[in-house]
């Protein structure tokens, strides 16, 4: 007998299935490079973010993990010659992490973990992808507000973002930092200029 499920349960189940796919794909690329998933995640993060975001403390907040866990992963990557640590000039207690040339090569390789997933997402019609993206962002925003997610630098919860201030236009939203209108497809989920909004 088939169990009836609420729509919300189906959505949660679908997210869990995609999460499983994500874990498997990351594990596959990690195994090829003799890395753990956390080490892989760290390399990808350092590859894609500016220096001021690349400390152990910041990685721990981004990944919602203990600093000790991140420190162990970084120590291993440093031993492999993929990462170097430098003391921050403004605060010598803080070490900035950066990739070595070899680290960049490995980071480029493991960054391909999402290629298969992206291939299937790209098959969806553009308007459907936009609706899915907005729905996922709304769920993340709600989880962030409930303090389930530690950090998500999204437009929807940013003090610089003004929603639907240009009604009827193709770009109805506005970013006060850049002073530019934005379409929903332009919304960011990992903006380096993010400022948390108190009422988010």
Please name the CATH architecture of the largest domain: Orthogonal Bundle
What would you give as the CATH superfamily of the largest domain? Answer: Winged helix-like DNA-binding domain superfamily/Winged helix DNA-binding domain
Instruction: Let me know the number of strands.
Output: 5
Number of helices: 7
| DSSP strand content | 5-15%
CATH topology of the largest domain: Arc Repressor Mutant, subunit A
**Domain unit count:** 2
Bulk shape: globular
Whole-number average pLDDT?
A: 91
Element-level helix/strand string: HHHHEEHHHEEE
Brief write-up:
The protein is mainly alpha-helical.
Question: How does this structure look, described?
Answer:
- With 200 residues, this protein is mainly α.
- It has 2 domains: 102 residues, Arc Repressor Mutant, subunit A, CATH 1.10.10; 63 residues, no CATH class.
- Helices cover 48% and strands 9% of the residues.
- It has 7 helices and 5 strands; from the N terminus they run H-H-H-H-E-E-H-H-H-E-E-E.
- The chain has a 3-stranded antiparallel β-sheet, with no helix packed on it.
- Helix 1 crosses helix 2, helix 2 crosses helix 5 and helix 3 crosses helix 4.
- The chain is globular and about 55 Å long.
Which tags fit this structure?
mainly alpha; 200 residues; 7 helices; 48% helix; 2 domains; Arc Repressor Mutant, subunit A; single chain
């Amino acid at each position: 007998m088939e169990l009836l499920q609420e729509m919300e349960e189906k959505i949660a189940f679908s997210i869990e299935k995609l999460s499983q796919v994500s874990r498997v794909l990351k594990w596959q690329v990690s195994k090829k490079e003799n890395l753990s998933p956390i080490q892989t995640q760290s390399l990808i993060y350092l590859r894609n973010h500016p220096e001021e975001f690349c400390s152990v403390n910041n990685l721990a907040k981004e990944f919602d993990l203990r600093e000790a866990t991140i420190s162990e992963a970084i120590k291993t990557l440093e031993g492999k010659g993929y990462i170097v640590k430098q003391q921050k000039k403004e605060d010598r207690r803080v070490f900035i992490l950066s990739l070595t040339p070899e680290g960049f090569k490995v980071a480029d390789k493991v960054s391909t973990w999402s290629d298969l997933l992206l291939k299937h997402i790209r098959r969806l019609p553009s308007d459907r992808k936009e609706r899915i993206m907005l729905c996922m962002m709304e769920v993340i925003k709600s989880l962030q507000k409930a303090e389930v997610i530690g950090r998500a630098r999204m437009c929807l919860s940013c003090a610089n973002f003004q929603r639907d201030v240009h009604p009827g236009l193709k770009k109805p939203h506005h970013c006060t930092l850049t002073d530019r209108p934005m379409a929903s497809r332009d919304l960011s989920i990992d903006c380096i200029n993010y400022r948390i909004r108190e009422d988010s």
